[in-house]
Amino acid sequence: MDLSRRDVMMAAGGLAALTLPGADVRAQPGRKLGYAIVGLGGYGLGKIIPEFANCTHSRLAGVVSGDRAKAERVAAEHNLPARSIYSYDNFDRIADNPDIDIVYVCLPNAMHAAYTIRAAKAGKHVLCEKPMAISVAESEAMIAACKAANRKLMIGYRCHFEATNLEAMRRARAGEIGKLRYFRSEHAYPQGDPSQWRLKRALSGGGSLMDYGIYALQAARYMTGEEPIAVYAHESTDRSDPRFHEVEDQIEFQLEFPSGVIGSCLSGYSANQNHVLLLGDKARIEMEPATGYAGHRLWVGNRRDTEITPRPGPGKTQWAGQLDHLAHCVIEDREPIVSGEEGLRDMRIIEAIYRSARERTRVVLA
Ligand code: NDP
């Protein structure tokens, strides 16, 4: 921290300078920031924890789980001390653990708000998985809690760190396909076990849109660089299918953008597709698979004539880029590029999409 900044902080609030995000980290140059993973499931354990091996500024420093034996096994595999293993009941004691700078919430959607707020109150920065919560009200409470605690809040929108998506965004913004006219994306995968939390409204907050359609919505916003001004949605769900007693299967939504771009998105839990198409008045940008874990392909031009090899992304992998980005933001006291406010924007649109489908009407966004 430079002197002038410190002087301003001291003048503004005395001790405030001592609680600046990252002030403690800046005092220990070279130290990797410690993450605690909350929820050792498919994503937290299967995907995120192995990615610390690809990180430069982040490391695993704690685990939070309802399954003590699993947590102990993971901790042993990663040389974590017993004091860095937490349950959901004693999670708040994480406040006393200086090894942990950031809490990464990898829980069912309906638990995101509670654990983000508890983490912020414990003085930790937060990376929270998508969707950031199950309502606008919860999302606003999460942002407020992190602000009040002077902690960073980032949402796990990994595509912002993925090379192919970054290349596609860059080319769209540079005007390579001319004036943007139309965006289309389908995000669908077949759901299995009807008893899983993703199909229970109380834990998921909704069906395919909360889980996978959010990628189409995100892509519509980051590929066009615009915010939709109205939505129109239509749902089609076979309610006799045991998977869909509580949540939607297919939901199609149209987005109206201020420039006149039309967005057309499909979200589903009973088909298989991962695709983004952006049409300009000169050419098109297409990605398929667009937002997956691997194997992304990108074409720019007319139809699929020219396949592009993207420039490298910011990290060895999209996950390492994401984890290290928040670490950087903490160290440098910057806002993450996918902040809580970015998650809130999606939640506002998601609520409007559900309302439009329910009321069969076009919903104007504020
Ligand atoms: P899983 O079901 O695989 O894991 C969730 C974990 O949460 C469980 O293993 C459990 O961990 C913990 N948990 C605590 N309470 C409950 C409960 N009542 N029911 C079920 N699990 C509970 O889910 P995922 O890991 O696939 O998803 C977690 C989050 O990550 C979701 O918000 C999802 O949207 C997001 N996600 C993001 C992806 C991305 O690419 N960005 C990809 C996949 C998921 P424990 O046993 O340790 O207590």
Describe this entry's structure for a reader:
This protein is 34% helix and 20% strand. The protein has helices at 3-13, 23-26, 44-51, 68-77, 112-121, 136-148, 163-173, 201-204, 208-224, 318-332, 340-359; strands at residues 33-38, 58-64, 85-86, 102-105, 125-128, 153-155, 180-188, 230-236, 250-256, 262-268, 273-280, 284-287, 298-301, 363-364. The chain has an eight-stranded mixed β-sheet. Strands 3-2-1-4-5-6 form a six-stranded parallel β-sheet, with helices on both faces. Helix 6 (136-148) packs antiparallel against helix 11. The protein binds NADPH dihydro-nicotinamide-adenine-dinucleotide phosphate. NADPH dihydro-nicotinamide-adenine-dinucleotide phosphate binds next to loops.
Radius of gyration: 21 Å
The secondary-structure element order is HHEHEHEEHEHEHEHHEEEEEEHHE
* Ligands present: NADPH dihydro-nicotinamide-adenine-dinucleotide phosphate
Tally the helices.
11
Arithmetic mean of pLDDT: 93
Number of distinct beta strands: 14
Which residues form runs of ≥5 with pLDDT under 50?
1-20
Strand content: 15-25%
Largest sheet: 8 strands, mixed
Main β-sheet, spatial strand arrangement:
13-12-11-7-10-9-8-14
Q: Which class best fits the helix and strand makeup?
A: alpha/beta
**Per the principal axes of the C-alpha atoms, what is the gross shape?**
globular
